[in-house]
Amino acid sequence: MSIADKVAVRLRVNGEDMAVMVLPYKTLLEVLREDLGLTGTKHGCELGECSTCGVLVDGKPYLSCLAMPLDLEGRDIVTVEGMARGSDPHPLQVAFAELGAAQCGYCTPAMLLTAMALLDRNPNPSRQAIKDALSGVLCRCTGYVKIFEAVELAASRGAAGG
Amino acid sequence: MADDLTIIGKSLTKPDAYAKVSGQTKFADDLAPPRMVYGRILRSPHPHARILSVDTSRARALPGVLAVITGDDLPVKFGILPVSQDEEALAREKVRYVGDPIAAVAATDEWIADEALELIEVQVKTLPAFMSIPDAIAGGNEPIHGQSNVHKAVALEFGDTEEAIQAAAYSREDLVFFEGNTHLPMEQHAAVAQYGADGKLTLWTSSQTPHYVHRALGKVLELPMSRIRVIATPNGGGFGGKSDIFSHELVAAKLAIVTGRPVKITLTREEVFYAHRGRHPVLMKVRTGFSKEGRITGMQFQSFLDGGGYGSYGVATTYYTGALQATTYAIPRYRFEGVRLFTNKPPCGPKRGHGTPQPRFALEIHLDKAAEALGLDPVEIRRRNLVRPDSRTVNWLRITSCGLDDCINKVVEGSRFLERRRAMPSGRGLGFAVSSYLTGAGTAIYWNDMPHSEVQLKLDRNGGVALLCGAIDIGQGSDHILAAIVAEVLGVELEDIQLTTADTDLTPIDLGSYSSRVTFMAGNAAKAAAESVRQRLLQSAAMALHCDPEDLVARGRRIFRRTRPEDGLSVAQAVQLVEAEQGVVTGTGSYTPPRLAGPYKGSGVGPSPAYSYSAAVVEVDCDPRTGEVRVPEVWIAHDIGRAINPVLVEGQVEGSVYMALGEALMEEQSFRLGLHKFPSLLEYKSPTALEAPVMHTYLVETIDREGPFGAKEAGQGPLLPVIPAVANAVYNALGVRIDEIPITPDKVLKALHDKGKRVGPKSVPAFGFPPLIKSDVPEEWRGK
Q1: To bridge B711 with a disulfide, which of B168, B191, B635, B707 should be the other Cys (CB 3.0-4.6 Å)?
Q2: Counted domains in chain B
Q3: Which strand (E) or helix (H) includes residue B429?
Q4: A136: which strand partners?
Q5: Are residues B256 and B283 in the same domain?
């Protein structure tokens, strides 16, 4: 195998339009982490099994380890780095911090983004709706309880659309 | 005192929380120094084979490959325990499990590195593999190591157990098996090594034990430790899985030295399953005598551990399978025989509870069965045997604070266990169990007289505090514990504390985030350091305020008179006074656990400065048609000593319950022809959000007299009672005994159709344990 020529891709990440030269076989996960320095997006398997690499594409949870940047031109990609407004964290981030919902913090970016997508379509979700929405994102630290509580706390503070 | 505390005991936001929720925390794989290249490791596809040759010439010739190394480049053996120096960074003569490292490559990108691995030609002679405990005991022409597959065999006795059991009104024997499972942290292990032009090596690694990695690097690379700097990055989950010395850490360092370039090695998820060092599969036999009132008269416990291909922590694990039976129950006479076998599987090591969840599972279902035979309820038989606070077990473990009785009351009352268990709806059941765990191992991994934890503080003129400690946060909240204790003692706020942790160049020693030791040991060191500084601040403040230092209080960034709070100065002003008089304001604190080992060989495993206690009630919902077991609700009480931060303690307890349910119902490392059957996150089943039960968490505070502000541990203990409570609940629900973990649907169905309504081991292999070491017993047990 020889190094393939890089190709230009136009991506919209966290509201910012950018042209990036990438190796065409690199996944969105790799481009975010290695080419754009957005290391907040993590990886747990790189096989689409754990959702640790989850980002939002057009507002919906999306597995960046299975996504190819070339397929995502013109789409709206949001990573954990795009959740804050300036220096003000998103209400979900505040709730996760306050309730200890991030223990090791490794699944946290994907968990937060998935929860944000949930609150954007359902501002006051039931516990079961939260469980359903987050069921694809594995966490090994928390037993999920503090995560559910944090989503509920953020919802009660009107996090949707925040 | 408790009312005076402003930070300890409060559910404050931990110092690293906002970095974690913003994605700013730098895990090892997030690091990419300029000019970095990628390392990959070639691993054995054979479970047991002799290496005849390794030809790297074609790999070396591939453009983009900077280095290829083999075992001959790293010939010095290592191992986490001084008694088990049996590993090589890259195998030289033999491979002992599928996944055993053989060679490694550094290349300019990962794809080239992977391609290069395929060009390495390894000639081997395959050998018969030993894949189970009976296989390993039966032996063969070529054992895995040395002359026999027996890694460690121990036999201890405290009092005449045979006599006690023979004379008992009732006795029983149970055989139990606990399958191995793995930690599965969401972060794969990763390490980045850099070798400077100054001849200094730096290794960033996702490790729970940077100090031990530092020692191993010095040994294997044959470099002075002063030329090696190990920085542990925040661990993306540990659970014991990152507390060993790993091949990729040594290999990344060697490749950095060979290439002169920073080298990163991140394991794939599949490699993590093979790197393992997780829960040992353990086959157990427990035999106990009881008086007619249900009091234990004597116990004999046997364990057979399936250790995998190398020693790892296994000698300690072997002892741990026999150590903590007596920390919950007053057992007057006790015998323990344990053997760890080498097998051709990934090496096992410590996982949350290290060697104690397996015997706890056996003991707690054994007691349930005994209770039924004796006509006692499951709670009563335990209450009749409870260990007392401030006592010594027959195997010489010192018990100090013990809130087990309270824990039992909390979960039994909370769940209405006794009222409900006899009248559960169809398929529903309630199970109960208790347990205990260490608050830090009383001895270091290598014997020495030095402290186990050390903390250094430096105060700046504005009242800020730099806190340096070797402890590493693995998600358990150790950064918060350190900061909270120092802030409380100095009367400053959490955000005034700047932490530098786990950097062997900068931070004084902490032995690592294992054995639930950090809160107690590093916490005590932090408290001592802060108190030494506080004393000097108060003295200078007292001079300025013309009063006695004893009359002063430090709180809210001020030092003021207890009786006249308006009469005071700021902590920053006090620092300036001390600095003007004495120069830089620093303080250190250290913690060395008391010497607690008993008077017998093997007594170094089990002693701890304090034990935590837990009790659990688990409700199950079983489907007798499918064998499926669901857990809708769990009641868990934990004696934490004191909760330094209740929300973080709850998180540890809830996470322990979760991990226990995974072990109880679905998780297993199992192998076919040496290959892991399901080394992926999809196929290795672990509980998702959908399986999360309703949890009722009760924190019991016993204010341990030696713990920092009375604190004990929370990270491991609460896992222990949940697993047997699930098994006991399944019995309550369906009348079947699954004496084997995990309790999968096929086993439940099999038990429902079994004449004896049981699934579990039917025998233990014949094995000649060494002669019993008959230990003296503590004064209070003599003649009992």
Answers
A1: B707
A2: 3
A3: strand B428-438
A4: none
A5: no
Helices A127-134 and A108-121: crossing angle in degrees, nearest 10, is 130
Residue B1 has pLDDT above 50, yes or no: no
Contact A131 B695 (CB under 8 A): no
Total residues belonging to chain B? 784
- Picking from B18, B30, B695, the nearest residue to A143 by CB comes out as B695
A49 touches chain B (CB under 8 A): yes
First to last CA, chain A: 46
Q: Which of B186, B187, B264 to mutate to test the interface with A (most CBs of A within 10 A)?
A: B186
User: What CATH number should be reported for the domain holding residue B722?
Assistant: 3.30.365.10
* Same-domain pairing of B74 and B166: no
Crossing angle for the helix pair A91-98 and A108-121, to the nearest 10 degrees: 130
Do B56 and B103 contact (CB within 8 A), yes or no?
yes
> Does B139 map to a domain?
no
Same domain (yes/no): A20, A74: yes
Which H or E run includes B394?
none
Inter-chain contact B25–A105, Cβ cutoff 8 Å? Answer: yes
- A112 and A60 together in one domain: no
In this prediction the ipTM stands at 0.97
CA–CA min distance A72, chain B (Å): 22
**Residue where a domain terminates, one of A51, A82, A113:** A82
Same domain, B578 and B609: no
Contact criterion met (CB < 8 Å) for A143 and B690:
no
Q: How far is CA A72 from CA A51, A63, A68, A111, B633, in A?
A: 18, 12, 7, 22, 43
Per-residue tokens: B267: 């394991």
Find tokens 């266990």 and name the residue.
B417
User: Least CB-CB distance to A143: which of B111, B654, B682?
Assistant: B654
Cα→Cα distances A41→A45, A95, B505, Å: 13, 20, 30
Average of per-residue pLDDT across B24-31: 98
Question: Has residue A161 got a pLDDT over 90?
Answer: no
Q: How far, in Å, CA of B114 to CA of B104, rounded?
A: 10
Best interface-test mutation with B: which of A141, A146, A148 has the largest number of B CBs within 10 A?
A141
Q: Given B238, B647, B680, which is nearest A47 (Cβ)?
A: B680
> Best mutation site among B12, B20, B652 for testing chain A: the one with the most A CBs within 10 Å?
B20
Do B256 and B25 touch, CB atoms closer than 8 A? Answer: no
Per residue in B557-612, pLDDT (tens digit) is: 999 999 999 999 999 999 999 999 999 999 999 999 999 989 999 999 999 999 99
Range of the domain at B651: 155-181+278-442+598-775
Question: What DSSP string runs through B438-486?
Answer: ESS-SS-SS--SS-SEEEEEEE-TTS-EEEEES---SSS-HHHHHHHHH
What is the mean predicted confidence (pLDDT) over B49-57? 98
- A126/B contact by beta carbon, under 8 A: no
Q: Which of B11, B651, B686 sits opposite A103 (nearest CB)?
A: B651
Q: In what order do the strands lie in the sheet with B49-55?
A: B94-95, B49-55, B121-126
Tokens 């690293």 label which residue? B16
Nearest CA in chain A to B18: A97
DSSP letters for B219-281: HHHT--GGGEEEEEPPPS--TTTTSS--HHHHHHHHHHHHHSS-EEEE--HHHHHHH---PPP
Q: What is the mean pLDDT of residues B438-449?
A: 93
Chain B environment of A79 (Cβ under 8 Å)? 23
Convert the pLDDT of each residue in B196-250 to its tens digit. Answer: 999 999 999 999 999 999 999 999 999 999 999 999 999 999 999 999 999 999 9
Q: Provide the phi-psi class of A6: left if phi over 0, else alpha when psi is between -120 and 50, else beta.
A: beta
In whole angstroms, give the CA distance from residue B713 to residue B515.
Answer: 9
Query: CB-CB: which of B111, B185, B658 is closest to A144?
Result: B658
In a domain, B132, yes or no: no
Contact B186 A52 (CB under 8 A): yes
